[in-house]
Amino acid sequence: MENVNDLRDQLTKTITRPIEKIVKFFITASAFAAILISISIIFTLLTEAINFFQDPAVTFKGYFTATRWTPTFQNPEYGVIVLISSTLYIAVIACLISFPLGLFSAIYLSEFATKRTRKVIKPVLEVLAGVPTVVFGYFALNWITPNIIQRFIPGTGVFNALSAGIAVGIMIIPTVASISDDALNAVPNSLRNGSLALGATRRITSLKIMFPAALSGIIASFILGFSRAIGETMIVTIAGGQYPELNLDPRSAMYTITSSIVNVSLGDTPHGTTAYNALFALGITLFIMTFILNIGSDYIARKYRKEYE
Amino acid sequence: MPESIEKNMSNETLITGKKAENAIKESLFLFTLYICVTIAILTLMTLIYDVLSTGTTRLTSDYEVGLITKIQIDNPIDFLTTLDSRYPDRAGIGPAFAGTVWLMIIVVSVTFPFGTGAAIYLQEFAPKNKITRFIELNLTNLAGVPSVIYGLLGLAVFVRLAGFGRSVLSGGLTLTLLILPVVIVASREALKAVPDTIRQGALALGATKFQAVFRQVVPSAIPGMVTGMVLGLSRAIGETAPLIFMGALTYVNYFPDTPLSGFTAIPIQVYNWIGYPQAEWKETASAGIILLLGLLLIMNSLAIFIRNRYEKDL
Questions:
Q1: Handedness of CA B274, B275, B281, B282 (dihedral sign)
Q2: Which structural domain, as residue segments, surrounds residue B99?
Q3: Residue contact B235–A130, C-beta within 8 A
Q4: Are A292 and A155 in a shared domain?
Q5: Measured distance CA(A33)–CA(A216) in Å, rounded
Q6: Is residue A159 located within the same domain as residue A286?
Q7: Do B157 and B27 fall into the same domain?
Q8: Nearest CA to CA, how far is B8 from chain A (Å)?
Q9: Looking at the structure, do residues B240 and B106 belong to the same domain, yes or no?
Q10: Which of B15, B34, B43 should we substitute to test contact with A (largest number of A Cβ atoms within 10 Å)?
């Protein structure tokens, strides 16, 4: 097929009009733009981050060992560990919510739901996935915090890691559910039928046959969900507060990488200052974290897809 | 004989006992699954109910300001067209709404040609080699980059390097970068769904590959591509974080009139209002969220409509 096309193209080369060449050039360039975007992301983040580390007030060691993140203070300290630990902390809370809920929803959808219920629930999850994060932030601050967190854990502040984590978790449920659902659906029907034919119940079939068979896809969905929790910005900015010191109390405010990027940029920091460059140092830290997770997720998902092809 | 009967009976009770236990486990498991699905759905409903009940009071009721003035905003249209204000009951979403419309125009006019172009190249023309695979890998990774990083990129490239400043153009281009991977993937899916017989038929009738792709394949994939574009766009208009770097959060009390004017957008305006501690602002913020969710609902319905309308023709 390809060869025939090539031959035909060669034969008709003489009558190729210039407009075709222009269009072909344009679409090829568009595709290569993807590489250009990636390069410019890495390039801009790196150059500004290098500027950041060239400031004498910043040391590479201080970046990873200081326990305060206060770039706009009189005596600035740049302890990224504060931000990384808060980010991971909130992401873990989010995963505790979204992994079980997302996975069980996926098992329900692929193993138990009838076609009709599936047709109702799938769009609902899609709508949940489409809700803007600023709305989830509002929901976390004005509904989850007063109605759930402060009711059951009195004394919790208005801004707290717990409600931000829960809201991020809810936001990720559709991601986990839809990818796990795909993974379960990709398992050949013969496995499911074989298990049922041998007398296994549907619970046994789901848990002991389907779940292990789709495990790599499910893990891929977990990693991707975790990566999205780390990169989530507006929910943690609105509901998570800004507490620039190291702390691990879920009832208190925290300060994630993303929310400090937003807050530093809100302070209208002039171009070229250390605080401005700090944005990009944080950016590349975040980029590396999510990049590794995304690659890992993609690798695992690819590997499992081959198993059944 | 009695002995064996006894044996059989004990076996049977054993089996039925196990069966009963299994049945309980079975229903418990199903119950757990139900609970999980219900929590997800209930959360969505609670969210929508909370926003609606808080926001509609802002859109329909009247307020006493001090003791003398009584301001009534019964008309949601007023909310859509008036400027932001220091008073929650007078604050409208006009400039932000206009800003979002500007962003949508810029995003569509840049994303559609580039997104579909890249998809057509990758799906129809690209040779199967390492470079193509590298582009595909790039696209997958770009789709997973946190949106706040696109904001940093937009700040460095469009605001500073290209000199567009903190303008609606910079914002639109930043959002374009954000949704381009999504649109490319969706458009490729649309092209993939076009049956090979259409390509072969065109080629058999003597069309060049270019003619076959652009006169036969692409037209039949257009509905799918438009659907992908609309879904990408609906993601773009809900984005807040990348736009904050464009200066969209400053107090904007005018309607943007050129691509280079400053702007604010609906989600940014909502974020702004959420930040005020007074309870009345909560209602105003909810009213903004209702508008945002309404817009998204319209766009998603449009996407579903296009998908259902044209899917059968293929």
A1: positive
A2: 83-311
A3: yes
A4: yes
A5: 32
A6: yes
A7: no
A8: 21
A9: yes
A10: B43
Tokens 């419309």, residue located:
B101
State whether B211 and B276 are in the same domain: yes
B297 shares a domain with B176: yes
For the whole prediction, is pTM greater than 0.90?
no
Residue B16 lies in a domain: yes
B87 and B45 both lie in a single domain = no
Residue B274: which of A28, A121, A137 has the nearest Cβ?
A137
Tell me the residue range of the domain where A47 lies.
Answer: 2-54
**Whether residue A101 is found in the same domain as residue A6:** no
Q: State how far the Cα of A198 lies from the Cα of A174, in Å rounded to an integer.
A: 33
Instruction: Please judge whether B117 and A27 are an interchain contact, meaning their C-beta atoms are less than 8 angstroms apart.
Output: yes
Q: Do B209 and A8 touch (CB under 8 A)?
A: yes
Residues B258 and B186 reside in one and the same domain = yes
Sign of CA dihedral B117, B121, B124, B125: positive
Is the same domain home to B201 and B305? yes
When CB atoms are compared, the residue of B147, B152, B271 closest to A280 is B152
Does some domain include residue A60? no
Cβ-defined contact of A128 to B138 (cutoff 8 Å): no
CB atoms A33 and B152 under 8 Å? no
Q: How many distinct structural domains can be found in chain B?
A: 2
Q: Report chain B residues whose CB lies below 8 A from the CB of A144.
A: none
Q: Whole-angstrom Cα distance, residue B77 to residue A72?
A: 42
Is there a single domain that holds both residue B196 and residue B234?
yes
Of B214, B235, B292, the CB nearest to A135: B292
Residues 94-113 of B with CB under 8 A from A: 113
**How far is B62 from chain A, CA to nearest CA, in Å?**
22
Considering only CB atoms, B44 lies closest to which of A30, A128, A283, namely A128
Tell which residue, A229, A225, A217, has the closest CA to residue A305. Answer: A217
* Alpha-carbon dihedral sign for residues B285, B289, B295, B299: positive
Residue B22: which residues within 8 A CB-CB, separation 6 or more?
A201
In this structure, the answer to whether residues A48 and A173 fall within a common structural domain is no
Q: Provide the domain count of chain A.
A: 2
The ipTM is: 0.87
Q: How many Å lie between the alpha carbon of B75 and the closest alpha carbon of chain A?
A: 23
pLDDT in tens, chain B (314 residues): 455 545 554 455 455 566 777 788 889 999 999 999 999 899 999 999 988 888 777 766 555 555 555 455 556 666 777 777 777 767 778 888 888 999 999 999 999 999 999 999 999 998 888 999 999 888 988 988 999 999 999 988 998 888 888 888 999 999 999 999 999 999 999 999 899 999 999 999 988 888 899 999 999 898 889 989 998 999 999 998 888 877 766 677 778 888 888 888 889 988 988 888 777 788 888 888 988 999 999 998 888 888 777 765 55
- Distance (Å, whole) CA B85 – CA B238: 22
Residues A23 and A110 in one domain: no
Is the distance from CB of B248 to CB of B263 less than 8 angstroms? yes
Same domain as A11, residue A84: no
> Considering only CB atoms, which chain B residues are within 8 Å of A48?
156
B294 → chain A, closest CA residue: A131
